[in-house]
Amino acid sequence: MISRYPRWVFAAPFALAAFLIACSTPGNYRKDAAHEELLQTLRQCLVEIPIGGERNKDFISPCVGRDVSSLNGIGRHRLIDALGPPRLCITQTDINFPEKDDCPVDQDPLWSFYRRAGSIDMGGGPELVCVANKQTRCVTVEWRTK
Predict the structure, then answer these.
(1) DSSP per position, 60-116
(2) HSE-up of residue 125 (Cα within 13 Å, Cβ side)
(3) Are 113 and 46 in contact (CB under 8 A)?
(4) Which of these, 33, 41, 43, 91, is most buried using a 10 Å CB contact count?
């Protein structure tokens, strides 16, 4: 049977699908103005934590609760470049300090967005976590409170 459509008509959907898959990046993150603005806002909130709020009172950053899901898929190094070195590195069972400016690949970087009054205790406040699952990209970027 002879088709009345040119052969390329049948190949076009497959070529388009292959192109879209090849050009996509994992997650939602794109290097655009909106994402850069979100990263700058988060960085500014981190900078303000030591000076924000009343002295000798707990302080929680106003950034906490912002939707950060658009950062899913961002490279770990890009997130560290934007926010500075992580405060801690975590796994399911361990908490460690970063080695130099990053965490080992099997640990997820974490930034604290709070300050406890008159205490050097860590934990108990909102933290931004790059859940990387041993990858070079953050599979998810999410808020956690412990």
Answers:
(1) E-TTTT---GGGTT-BHHHHHHHH-S-SEEE-SS-EE--BTTB--TTSEEEEE-EE-
(2) 21
(3) yes
(4) 43
Cα separation, 14 vs 37, whole angstroms: 36
In tens, the pLDDT along 8-34 reads 555 555 544 444 333 444 567 777 888
* 72, 138 contact by CB (below 8 A): yes
Contact 138, 79 (CB under 8 A): yes
Distance (Å, whole) CA 12 – CA 32: 29
Q: What single-letter amino acid sits at 68?
A: V
Side chain identity at residue 96, one-letter code: N
Contact 120, 87 (CB under 8 A): no
Distance CA 143, CA 66 (A): 9
Six-digit token string for 139: 């599979």
**φ/ψ (deg, to 5) at 22:** -65, -35
The amino acid at 79: L
Q: Summarize pLDDT for 33-90 with one digit per residue, the tens.
A: 889 999 999 999 999 987 777 777 888 999 999 999 999 999 999 999 999 999 999 9
